[in-house]
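Sequence design from tokenized structure. All designs in this work follow the same two-part layout: the structure record, then the generated sequence. An example of the structure record is given first.
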């Protein structure tokens, strides 16, 4: 999902400490924390350039259904998690598959929500003139996070192998770290996201 500029990094496994929710950062500056009083104004301005954009921890809470209000991204992220959960269940278990399951319709709903996120992104996120172009839209990235979350939740509930559970947990931590890196790049005005289909600001 992420391009080569955003490698998915190792993060702590269950029971291990992390300095950024589930995200490991090497320094206060990397975590978006101003280290000198003179930088506080600049940091505040950078935060305002992407108002409404969810931080990695917020996105985790959103897909888990534990965050409400504020950004419309919260509801869209949760909806994507629910849709992906249905797709995961249908793919791995015919017994648990909903009787009225329609894969084509469900994928269509995923695409619709991705489009809504991309439309929001086109109007609310900065588009620096000299930023590096990212390979995926914000909607695609959030959908990837939501899909990985749905997969890890199914694995933790149903997989008998502790190794499978650990691999799924680690995979989600890596995906979340990739998202955290992308948010940092957006706020630092170093990256331009694709607008996505149908998201064209006037």
């Amino acid at each position: 999902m992420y391009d080569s500029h955003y490698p998915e990094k190792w993060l702590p496994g269950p029971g291990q400490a992390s300095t950024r929710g589930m995200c490991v950062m090497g320094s206060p500056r990397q975590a978006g924390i101003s280290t000198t009083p003179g930088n506080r104004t600049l940091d505040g301005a950078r935060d305002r350039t992407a108002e409404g954009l969810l931080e990695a921890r917020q996105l985790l809470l959103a897909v888990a259904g534990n965050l409400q209000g504020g950004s419309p991204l919260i509801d869209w992220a949760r909806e994507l998690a629910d849709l992906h959960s249905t797709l995961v269940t249908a793919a791995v278990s015919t017994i648990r598959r909903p009787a009225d399951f329609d894969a084509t319709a469900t994928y269509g709903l995923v695409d619709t929500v991705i489009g809504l996120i991309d439309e929001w992104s086109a109007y609310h996120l900065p588009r620096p003139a000299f930023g590096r172009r990212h390979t995926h839209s914000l909607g695609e990235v959030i959908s990837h996070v939501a899909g990985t979350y749905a997969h890890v939740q199914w694995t933790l509930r149903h997989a008998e192998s502790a190794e499978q559970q650990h691999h799924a947990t680690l995979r989600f931590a890596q995906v979340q770290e990739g998202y955290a890196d992308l948010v940092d790049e957006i706020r630092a005005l170093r990256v331009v996201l694709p607008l996505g289909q149908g998201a064209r600001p006037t």
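Residues 1-47, 198-202 have pLDDT under 50 and may be disordered. We note this feature because it recurs in several other targets discussed in the main text.
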